[in-house]
Amino acid sequence: QVQLVESGGGLVQAGGSLRLSCAASGRTLSSYGMGWFRQAPGKERMFVSAISWSGGTTSYADSVKGRFTISRDNAKNTVYLQMNSLKPEDTAVYYCAGTPGPYGGSRWFDYVYFGQGTQVTVSS
Q1: CA-CA distance, 56 to 70, in Å (whole number)?
Q2: E strand residue ranges, 14-115
Q3: Spatial separation of the C-alpha atoms in residues 34 and 12, rounded to whole Å
Q4: Could you tell me which of 52, 53, 55, 39 has the C-alpha nearest to residue 6?
Q5: Dihedral angle sign, alpha carbons of residues 120, 68, 80, 105
């Protein structure tokens, strides 16, 4: 069993930056592919980014490509999402996700574990 806890969300103006963290406990993260998803009010949960267990492979949704960077520190059992040039349309609850194996991909139902989420609000 893996417990995931997100932090780092908040209110920021458009053009600003935030760094989300996802701390894992219960198992070592190095055995898990990790990802970030987001859900805006009234909308479906959407893929944001994913990273392989070694960190060697990453992927991004087109809407965040070039602005967001996913990374991981397996020694700290933590995954990060650096978000730059934030836009009002990035406003959502952001969820960290993990799944056993090298890589989880972009489909949320391929992930086994989810955190409680952290709110990101970008004002215009």
Answers
A1: 11
A2: 18-25, 32-39, 46-51, 58-60, 68-73, 78-83, 92-100, 113-114
A3: 25
A4: 39
A5: positive
- Distance, in Å, from the CA atom of 26 to the CA atom of 7, rounded to the nearest integer, reads 18
Q: Are 23 and 5 in contact (CB under 8 A)?
A: yes
CA atoms of 8 and 120, how far apart (whole Å): 9
pLDDT in tens, the chain (124 residues): 889 999 999 999 999 999 999 999 888 888 999 999 999 999 999 999 999 999 999 999 999 999 999 999 999 999 999 999 999 999 999 999 999 999 999 999 999 999 999 999 999 9
